Request: fold
Amino acid sequence: MPKAQPLRPCEETLQQNDNMYANFAQWNPLEYLADIRARSGRGVLVVNWPVIHEPQGTCYNRRYGAEWLARYNAWLAAEAERRGFAYLDLHDLLPAENFIDSLHLNAAGHEIIAARIAAALMPLVQARR
Reply:
């Protein structure tokens, strides 16, 4: 098992989030997916990928402040709904033992995710038949 990375102070994480993600809603990758759907007629499944929960102060983990992550999760769900996309929220699905580090999954975590995504894709696949 990989050695755990030391946690940086939550204040540093929050400052980094402020610098990197201040305009995240303006990036809107779902606009690109809406264009693909409009041109192809294919269904779209938006998946909110899980990240490890290792709370430290007001941080969700070493990468994200809890408030930032909550804002992003709410925005993603609302934006997917607004655009009529199928949405699968896996954010809090996995326990820490299914992660290699704060972001990447081990084999067991991937198996769980694959099963959930397959089930969520089934209605989209059936609609194409």
